Amino acid sequence: MLQLANAENVRAEAQSLRQSPFAIRGLTVSYDQKPAVFSVDATIEPGKLTAIVGPNGAGKSTMLKAALGIIKPLSGQVTHLGRPVADEMHRIAYVPQRASVDWDFPVRVIDVVLMGLFRKTGLLGRLSGADRKHAMACLERVGMTDFASRQIGQLSGGQQQRVFLARALAQDADLYLLDEPFAGVDAATEKAIIAVLKSLRAEGRTVVAVHHDLSTVPDYFDNVLLLNVRKIAEGPVATTFTDENLGAAYGGRLATARIDPAAVAG
Amino acid sequence: MFLEALFFQLGYNATLVTFGATLLGIAAGVTGSFLFFRKRALVSDAISHATLPGVALAFIVMVTLGFDGRNLPGLLLGSAISAALGLFAVQWLSSRTRLTEDAAIGAVLSVFFGFGIVLLTVIQTMSSGRQAGLEGFLLGSTAGMLYADALLIAGGGALALILVAIFRRPMMMASFDPEFARSSGINLDRTDLIMMGLVMGVTVIGLKIVGLILIVALLIIPPVAARFWSDRADRVVVIAGGLGGLSAWIGASASAVAPNLPTGPIIVLTAFAIFTASMLFAPARGLLISAIHHRNFQRGVHIRQGLVSLAQGQPIYEPMTIRLLRAEGLARADGVPTPDGVARASRVLRDEKRWETARSDPALEMAAARYDGLTQIEDVLTPDQIAELDTRIGGPRGVTP
Amino acid sequence: MSGSEFVPLSLTPLIIGCLAAVACALPGNFLILRRQALIGDAISHVVLPGIVVAFLLTGAISATAMMLGAAVAAVTAVAMIEGIRCFGRIEAGAAMGVVFTAMFAGGVLLLELSDTSGVHLDVEHALYGNLESLIWLDATGWGSLLEIDALKGLPPELFRIAAVVVIIITLLAVFWRPLAISTFDEGFAATLGLPVTVISLGLVIASALAAVAAFDAVGSIIVIAMFICPPAAAHLMTNRLGAQIAWSVGFALASAIVGFVLAGYGPLWIGGTDAVSAAGMIATVSGVILAITAVAGPRRRAVT
């Protein structure tokens, strides 16, 4: 069962690294000597919608943050089309969890979207009228133009999430990474967000989202990455999103939940 | 001289002061622990700075009424009233406006202090104000302390300690898990009030010895230092009391030898020295022991990941992994495993496989949760359970670890 | 009051008070929004040991050495706080409490132990400053503002604080967007490639510069009022960052002017004979302004 590194393996590996917009190798993150993410390899397919799924505390958000260098991993390498992610950040847009932001901050919706243009204008650059127009167009895509001058904290959770998505759109990236974009949002927002994500896919961009609602995975996503500290499985929803893999990811919990109580009693 | 002071042989007054300071240090360390667990350590900074206008106003009132303005109980009563006002202002600002507690603390401490300074300059212009000596309350002083004052401080320290002993249980529960404490019938508001009352009491008693600017150190530093010695809250409280008492005892003794130096800074620096030693060398959570653990853990993870990659024929990218594998004699510089490495790799792979199987078995879920990437499954499961797993895995068997 | 009295005795302390208040209020806005108000507290406490050590090393009080000493002390303090927080796994507030009290105590003790009789540095001065002493003796009236010789006699503290105000305004104008973005959403700022640690340290250093320049005038504790009160009051007035900063500057100037006038002339109005501490009065007025906005500010309530 033991195979040694051979030329063919190495070639195939190099090939998949070159093609994947988000390839993770041997990523381990630990808090206090308890790994939150352990030795994860993942190869995200280009031009697809991929869900990262797993139970609470499975390290989904941690993996994303560590892959982007927001928190420091213990080990591991992450590449975008074969180059280190750290050098390719301008091709990547990240939408953090809503809870990670200070909603009391004195800033308007349109100002938040304009933050997405920071890469383009640079450190000292000033914003032009065209930039503002572009930001408004991004708000239009998420249906939030009417709220452009509101203070960000005055919006509902779903509206805030849409503004974050608009900011990511303004970044005009190849790869979109979203951390729980559907957490605590209303049904209308969920629909609006998934429509935008699908339009990004139609434009040939890659979208990866941490997701917690198992029932919508087959409707929303093409691929799935099952995670519980370690990677359980990855691949197309049809072949990967199986009861067996889910059981492995969610441990006994999901499996037990599906067992008929009467049978257990008997 | 210092040794004599340390062992209470410098005359009755100095002994009483040192004794009182030690009691105060113990009470402060214990009280401060609850504040620290509650993550509100710096509220005490607002409380202590807020005492200044009270001290000054009490002086003015006492002089106006024809009493001696330096009467310590009167000054301390005034300080307690204005400290309570300051605490109320912090609570009000952080609950009724959008300001966060840290902004409220900073605003209250500086404004109350500023107003206190205004009052101090008023006192300096009063005929009886020149020798008021209220500046001693800023940084603490034990020089020229009256017998009655020393007695008051010693008594106050003892009283604070008794109150802490009485209320320790509700305070512990409220600081560990407020929601649970509430559900088990503890009145959170009242417990918080008691906690803050004790903090205020310690502050007021400590004003004369440590001074209002630095008294907060006696509430914060010993608990933080104690945290490095234990992971159990009840022990942290006791250790914090001990360290606080030790700091105050040594500091007050040193200050008895050098009466011209302010007492507060000496006590605080003693506490800080104890803190530094604790942070570096404490065996429970000290930096030295943590660094060693972390290094071993990181090495273990790298080696295990490297072995898994070797076993699956995947290339290893990380220079650190290859270096560690080489150092252990498990692989060559080009990433090709040595015979020893091949053997270890297959064992690791089998271990991983067993864990994987264990994880998908509801009966083994508790044990499987102990997986951390390093623990061998043999340490968690019985040989029978492992044999059972192996029959499920199938494949080659018989390699003994 | 005539110019011949006002200009030499009150004009320069008033201007220095105003500049100090503005210098602190500007970075204070960001400290408050970053939930780091107490970093301002810590910085202002450690300015004292910074200055004392700089004095002991150079043997004289020079502006450059003081600024450098204070900046080094502030960065050291922040590094220690972060070290205790990350490696010791201690909550930030407690870590701050450990560091700034210890450093402040060290500063006080060093100051008491060293011979500073020849220079203008003592503990009381360090605690609450001496704004009233920063007078312009060469002035004889408003006309002195046009006399080169008289202008040469302006207190050096005035130029120091003016230079710091200019530096801080420049930094703020240049780094406005990165500062605003990383304050609002640090994780996002990091993915933009912004050096979030450098930005946050830069803010600390700017605050330390403001604190040391204001130190002469108001000492190390009342400085905290200038860092926190005007921006906190401004935060209760508006939901726009630019507007908040404008309000905070207005409140800072109002505190400085009203506080200085009340301290100097207030006691005379009510029949007293001597002025009271101007620095203390400025802090008091800034507190009154904050209290008013907390009761009546249009944006005083939390939004969520």
Descriptive overview:
The complex is a heterotrimer of chains A (266), B (401) and C (304). Chain A has 266 residues and is α/β, with parallel strands linked by helices. Chain A has a single domain, classed as Rossmann fold, CATH 3.40.50. Helix content of chain A is 39%, strand content 23%. In chain A, α3 runs parallel beside α6 and α5 packs across α6. Chain B has 2 domains: 262 residues, ABC transporter involved in vitamin B12 uptake, BtuC (Orthogonal Bundle), CATH 1.10.3470.10; 106 residues, no CATH class. Chain B contains 18 helices and no strands. Chain B is elongated, with a radius of gyration of 30 Å. The C terminus of chain B is likely disordered. Helices cover 73% and strands 0% of the residues of chain B. Chain C is 76% helix and 0% strand. Chain C contains 12 helices and no strands. The mean pLDDT of chain C is 87. The interface between B and C is large, with 63 and 67 residues.
> Averaging pLDDT over every residue of chain B, what do you get?
84
Strand content of chain B: under 5%
Helix content of chain C: over 70%
Low-pLDDT sequence parts of chain B: 397-401
CATH architecture name of the largest domain in chain B: Orthogonal Bundle
CATH homology group of chain C: ABC transporter involved in vitamin B12 uptake, BtuC
Structural class of chain B: mainly alpha
Number of domains of chain B: 2
How many beta-strand elements of chain B?
A: 0
Keywords (chain B): Cell membrane, Membrane, Transmembrane, Transmembrane helix, Transport
Family (chain B): Belongs to the ABC-3 integral membrane protein family.
Subcellular location (chain B): Cell membrane
Protein name (chain B): Manganese transport system membrane protein MntB
